[in-house]
């Protein structure tokens, strides 16, 4: 059976890995429009409880990931310079690029073919596939091509956010609130490598407009945020990687599959970055879809119905 996976993010690569291990004779090909080694954003975070399912369902990946992760036993809130630590729920984080490299190597070792720099522009290009897996993110071409069948609902939340990195190695997952003459800002930040942290800046629409952030270029916007959070960055710079100000797209779909086409990961549904569950849900989708094919074999309609 031939399986075409669109998107080499966590959802697409993990599904490809699991399905190829289950059915080594299947031809599984991944098409990714970006070049190999390109990723946007900085780190991904998991609660320790959320990692338990991965250890159970994919122990090899779990073991490799955990060896590369940064860990801490609590969360912290900083408000008006007062620090409040919250115990009882630990977290771990890993760089997005490091995670992609781990998944890519495991897939290639298993025999999955990954085509980087290959942009699929129409589903007709995949007519020869028995299954098409849309794992191509919140702006999914696969979902857009079958919009009338999937019936997506997209709501743009009003807050604005920009996703930065910084060389400041923070102690733990932290919410830091700062205010200035333009309004209130919050940073969601955590260490995802020994000398690198993710730093997401968020504010409401009124503050964003009043500060003029929409009129600034990347360097100006980054410098502004460095001033707002100067007490927390402690002289460390913010680092950009397509760090545009955006509104979060809250996405859901009435249907998850249509014919031989199925959606997983952010193509299927998004969850706000503040709860740190996007990659976990992408992994859970991949595991569930693989499990559905494990029960249904090459009966594609049965497998996709079971997944949905």
Commentary on this structure:
The protein has 308 residues and is an alpha/beta fold. The protein has a domain at 2-46 and 94-155 and 249-307: FAD/NAD(P)-binding domain (3-Layer(bba) Sandwich), CATH 3.50.50. 34% of the residues lie in helices and 34% in strands. The protein has eleven helices and 15 strands. The protein has helices at 10-22, 48-57, 59-67, 96-110, 141-145, 147-150, 205-211, 218-228, 230-233, 278-296, 300-307; strands spanning 2-6, 27-32, 43-47, 70-79, 82-95, 113-116, 131-134, 152-166, 173-180, 183-193, 196-203, 238-239, 246-253, 257-258, 261-263. Strands 3, 4, 5, 8, 9, 10, 11, 12 and 13 form a nine-stranded mixed β-sheet that branches. Helix 1 packs parallel to helix 10. It is globular. The model has no long low-confidence stretch (mean pLDDT 96).
